[in-house]
Each structure stands twice: as structure tokens, then as C-alpha cells.
């Protein structure tokens, strides 16, 4: 039986579960899978998910951190900052200060904080090497905060399995169903829950002809990259007007 009786998840699209959809079109994602596993072992287990896609750290702090802390959960997960570092002109000092405030606030009210070292995009996405110094800075912040607050760290960055396109949705930014399943298992392993499969087991390599790759790159640019850039230029977000999918810490029923 798990010694955690409640979980609150805080963050952006990664934690909302974007690109892992149920038949009714709602997001599931790794946090829901973790909650389901913990609930199976703990009668009356409660779960809230405050994460909303597209949110910057400033918005996560303003909209999610205090409500999450007020719930005083046994377990709280925090993942944020990647949307910030992907934007031109990112103020790393401001991001660091807000991430630090969020983790400090959550650690003061929850029994256990879980943090994430984000997956390495440099071998999977062309052009991502330009933001690697910012990502490395974010990783260093996570490591420091984990030490300061005795947080559990889920290290996705060190696993080459996330280099595989087979774990990512068509937009190349969000995990697909299998990707979320593996993050859930990695999180459970970090929490010392008995393993159900090897989350970082390598996937078969699927070579792609250069012509097919070029065609796929063009389709991606039209369908996903163009709208993403347009939202950045106009100050809009995919999460504008969207409410959290599980705003209350209620018993988990699937």
C-alpha cells in the first residue's frame, strides 16, 4: 500500500497530459496514470490536477501554487519553465526566482515534492541546440532545489529513450500516449513504487527516407510550427481561457 493518500499536480501541458487523449477527447497524461496507480493501492486516494497548457512560470505561480499549497497534499508534482526558455528574450533570473518560490511554497505544505529534469530535445528537434544553455540552467535549478527541499527528482534528461520520435506527438513538442506512459512509470519508480515495466527500455530504430523526412518537416512547419510562432508574436497562449481539468482535491475514480 502506498504511503501517499493525496496528489496535486502543478504545471503546464506536460502535466495536463496534452496529446494523450481519452476516447471522449479529454487529456489523460502521466499524472493521471500515477494517480491511478497510487489509488489502486490506497483506498480513498485523492487527486487534483491544476496544470494548464501553455502556462509560463509566472502564470503557474500566480494561478496554481497557492491553491495547491492550500490543499496540503501528501504529494505534489511541479514541472514548469520549459515554455519560458523556449521563448526569445527569456529572463532566466526571473524564471529561476519564480521556480524557486514555487518549490519553496509547495515544500512547506506538502509531505513530498516531485520535480522533473526535462527530456533532452537536442538530438530530436532541429534548432533546439540554441536553447540548450537555458535548459541546462533550468536543470541546475531543479537539482539545487531538490537538494534544498529533499525533493524526489524524475530524471528524463539522462534517458536516451526520449530521443525516439515514437514517444512524441505530431507537434514534436508534447509526449504521445506511450511517452506519457513511460513518464508515469519513471515517476512511480522515483517514488519507490514497485516497477511494472522498464520505462527507459530502448525502442526499435525506424529509419526514414530523406524525402519522407523532408515532407514530414514541411507538414510540421505548416501545421504546428507556424501557429505556435503566431501565438508567440501576438502574446496568445493555447491555455487562454482554459480551466484546470481537476481543480479540486477529490477522490480519484479514474
From TrEMBL:
Organism per entry: Actinokineospora auranticolor
Basic and acidic residues: bias regions: 242-254
Highest taxon listed in the record's lineage: Bacteria
Domain SGNH hydrolase-type esterase: 9-182
A Pfam match: Lipase_GDSL_2
Protein name: Lysophospholipase L1-like esterase
InterPro entries: GDSL_Rv0518-like, SGNH_hydro, SGNH_hydro_sf
Region (Disordered): 231-254
Listed CDD domains: SGNH_hydrolase_like_1 (cd01832)
Amino acid at each position: 500500500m502506498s504511503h501517499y493518500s493525496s496528489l496535486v499536480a502543478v504545471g503546464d501541458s506536460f502535466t495536463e497530459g496534452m496529446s494523450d487523449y481519452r476516447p471522449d477527447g479529454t487529456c489523460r497524461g502521466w499524472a493521471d496514470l500515477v494517480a491511478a496507480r497510487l489509488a489502486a493501492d490506497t483506498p480513498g486516494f485523492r487527486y487534483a490536477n491544476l496544470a494548464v497548457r501553455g502556462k509560463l512560470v509566472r502564470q503557474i505561480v500566480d494561478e496554481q501554487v497557492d491553491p495547491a499549497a492550500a490543499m496540503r497534499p501528501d504529494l505534489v508534482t511541479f514541472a514548469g519553465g520549459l515554455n519560458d526558455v523556449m521563448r526569445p528574450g527569456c529572463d532566466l533570473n526571473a524564471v529561476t526566482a519564480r521556480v524557486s518560490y514555487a518549490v519553496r511554497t509547495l515544500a512547506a505544505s506538502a509531505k513530498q515534492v516531485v520535480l522533473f529534469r526535462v527530456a533532452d530535445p537536442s538530438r530530436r528537434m532541429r534548432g533546439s541546440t540554441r536553447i540548450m544553455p537555458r535548459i541546462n540552467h533550468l536543470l541546475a535549478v531543479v537539482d539545487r532545489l531538490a537538494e534544498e527541499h529533499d525533493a524526489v527528482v524524475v530524471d528524463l534528461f539522462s534517458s536516451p529513450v526520449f530521443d525516439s520520435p515514437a514517444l512524441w506527438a505530431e507537434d514534436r513538442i508534447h509526449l504521445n500516449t506511450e511517452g506519457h506512459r513511460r513518464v508515469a512509470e519513471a515517476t512511480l519508480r522515483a517514488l519507490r513504487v514497485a516497477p511494472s515495466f522498464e520505462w527507459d527500455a530502448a525502442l526499435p530504430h525506424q529509419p526514414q527516407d530523406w524525402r519522407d523526412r523532408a515532407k514530414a518537416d514541411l507538414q510540421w512547419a505548416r501545421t504546428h510550427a507556424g501557429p505556435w510562432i503566431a501565438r508567440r508574436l501576438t502574446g496568445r497562449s493555447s491555455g487562454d481561457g482554459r480551466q484546470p481539468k481537476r481543480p479540486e482535491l477529490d477522490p480519484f475514480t479514474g
